[in-house]
């Protein structure tokens, strides 16, 4: 649905030119929610703005719905833009128009009659749940309601693609959830392709099917959200994922952690990762029953990404080194990932 | 107050209304579009054209920096060409309009420039033409500011019209100078000043009221 091929964007600055996007290529399928995540300054906003030519690429091609929009200008470009909806971080609603008037704008621009506009707006306002607020001005609406108006406005021209430029970044977490739920609902019911950019990993986790990680103008990683989350490859991805799942160890623990000092009075600290079906089998209970090892749970959580569980458990393994090694082998044989984070002095034995 | 004085005041008021009214309408009709052109041809805007923008800006500044009394005399040939005479109320509307137009243009420009660039981008993303952006985004969003600007211009025109009166334009200013100053009738002068104060107050209050009603950016308590 959206094909981006060899996209380059440079900006002229006081000290020469800055390259914001370096040879970016992406392929977004019909009906999917594709997320692009990056730190601020990574170029993600420029990338999404290149899709509807709010920003002209310096080089490369952008094809939306079979039309090479990057070769268009003037009337053809305006016509193509009507097939691409866009919502913004700061909503960009006209303060002089009511919610109804704002949703009517794209229809007025397309030259529709008042009666046609009235007929088309009502279902849109119902879809975003703002029928009772249609005569309110933006100043009288909350942030979430403003973004709902923005979504209804973007859908008014019946686009095939919706671009979301940090659409939830100005909203509180609860409102973000409700807007994401609405986007997902629209994606399902209307079959709308959504390209979403954000710096918030929870947003990606919540609704995206696939994700691309943008860093310094380059795509460093892309794939199914579950795969990227559970097996991040690039450093920047790992740091994003850590925010959501691999929570850092508490300071008092990481300070005690020694990299490789398997002294007789120290215990191994293990991170056990459960993914997919393995998260639902009682492997830990089996280990404790069959091997002479005790687990002291230090940290743990289970996240659901795209409906699949992803568990992360940090334990201190108390037992003889050979027994611990056997336990690790057993866990690995059950398709769980085990990582030895280090060793800590055995507090229990020291006390004893 | 003598009936004669009342008659003179009414006559002067009528002439002032005529001069200010005509020139306010004409200068708004030319000045607001001029303000739009100054904005949209500016750097980074929808119809960017830097050389044109610079030249237009220079012309506007030149007109604004010419003192009104000099402008009035300098354009006498033009005034004669347009209204057939350089003396009288009709003739005064020509220099008043020419002086007020760049003033309105600059005031409109500053209001139009305040319109959030995000709104223009949103409209571009919807496939709006530059003309649609001007008519449906820029002007409606800047309307409260433009109304406030026009109000300032009308108040300014009332002051200028008194100056035009001094050179045979008629109106309240002319009345004040002829009777109050040249014939030593301070009561006429005082009456003229009082009428002008009331007039300016009324214009300002009306302008403020309309601008406030049109500004939807602030939440008004609904009754």
Brief summary of the model shown:
The complex is a heterodimer of chains A (352) and B (223). Chain A is of the alpha/beta class.
How many whole angstroms does the radius of gyration of chain B measure?
Answer: 20 Å
Q: What's the helical proportion of residues of chain A?
A: 25-40%
Radius of gyration of chain A (Å)? 25 Å
**Percentage of residues in DSSP E strands of chain A:** 25-35%
Characterization of this structure:
The complex is a heterodimer of chains A (352) and B (223). By secondary structure, chain A is α/β, with parallel strands linked by helices. Chain A contains 13 helices and 14 strands. In chain A, strand 1 and strand 2 (16-28) form a beta hairpin. The N and C termini of chain A lie far apart (66 Å). Chain B has 223 residues and is mostly helical. Helices cover 83% and strands 0% of the residues of chain B. Chain B contains nine helices and no strands. Chain B has helices at residues 3-40, 50-65, 68-74, 76-83, 89-113, 117-125, 130-169, 171-182, 186-214. Chain B is elongated. Chain B starts with a helix and ends in a 9-residue tail after the last helix. Classes of the chains: A alpha/beta (352), B mainly alpha (223).
